[in-house]
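Title: Prediction job returns without error message
Component: structure pipeline
Severity: low
Priority: P3
Assignee: unassigned

Description:
Job completed but the reporter wants confirmation the result is attached to the right record. Sequence as submitted:
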Amino acid sequence: MAKLTKAQREWRPGMPKKRRSTKVMFASTVLLLEAFVAFFATLAVFGLKRGEPALVLGFGITLSVVLILACAVLSRPWGIGVGWVMQLVLILSGFVEPTMFVVGVLFAACWWYGIRAGMRIDRENAQRDREQAEWDASHGEDSAGQSA
């Protein structure tokens, strides 16, 4: 049998499911897309024989792996800062392949928008949850599941 996660071990019937952060989901999506682009850009630069092949492959594959691993720390307070550093690294990779300047800036814009929109959606969800809890408290729990 598979090992249970902490959340699975602590779950009890009737417990509400914790809402995932939309900001983290958007940011993870952008970082994963960047990892794929970085990997394929590495193959393109390697195929065009720009730079030392071992250095190009080493840097590109490392960048792809770090972008994927950065997804794991996004929920931490410093995780978004790591994402911004990764945006800068992707833009600076344009010194090896000039097209990456454009790609990096476009991804940085997607990153900024994803963070901004995700924070707004998370705020709206928190407000909606507070209002629902207030309504449930004032109208009783048994009326929450009934329809008029």
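Comment from assignee: result matches the submitted record. The mean pLDDT is 89.
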